[in-house]
C-alpha cells in the first residue's frame, strides 16, 4: 500500500498533476501533501524554528541550520576544483556550473 501511494505521487510529477493547494493563503498547487504542509508554515506569522543569534524565524529546521552557518562562518561544502567554500551544497552545485563549458549553444 505504501509503495503504491509513493508510486502514485511520483507519477504526478510526470503528469504535472498537483491536487494539493493552499487556496486560503496564496493559491499555489502542489503534487505532494508534505510540500503543501511546508508551504502553509511559511504563511504563519511566527515560524516554528527561530535563530538564537538574530531572532529570525524559519519554516523548516534545515533552513535554520543553513542560516545559522552565516553566524558561525561554517562552510562545509567546498569545490574540489578551486577550493571555494559554501554554506550549503545547493550553492556549491550552482557554482560547479561555472567550471563547465557549454559548447554549441
TrEMBL record:
UniProt domain C2H2-type: residue ranges: 49-76, 77-100
Ranges that cross the membrane: none
Segments forming a coiled coil: none
Keyword Transcription: no
Keywords: Metal-binding, Repeat, Zinc, Zinc-finger
InterPro entries reported in the protein's UniProt record: Znf_C2H2_sf (IPR036236), Znf_C2H2_type (IPR013087)
SUPFAM superfamilies: beta-beta-alpha zinc fingers
The keyword Zinc is assigned to this record: yes
Protein name: C2H2-type domain-containing protein
Amino acid at each position: 500500500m505504501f509503495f503504491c501511494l509513493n508510486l502514485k505521487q511520483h507519477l504526478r510529477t510526470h503528469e504535472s498533476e498537483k491536487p494539493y493547494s493552499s487556496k486560503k493563503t496564496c493559491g499555489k498547487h502542489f503534487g505532494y501533501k508534505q510540500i503543501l504542509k511546508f508551504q502553509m508554515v511559511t504563511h504563519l506569522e511566527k515560524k516554528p524554528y527561530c535563530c538564537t543569534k538574530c531572532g529570525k524565524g524559519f519554516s523548516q529546521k534545515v533552513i535554520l541550520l543553513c542560516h545559522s552557518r552565516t553566524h558561525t562562518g561554517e562552510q562545509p561544502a567546498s569545490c574540489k576544483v578551486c577550493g571555494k567554500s559554501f554554506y550549503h551544497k545547493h550553492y556549491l552545485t550552482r557554482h560547479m556550473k561555472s567550471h563547465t563549458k557549454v559548447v554549441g549553444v
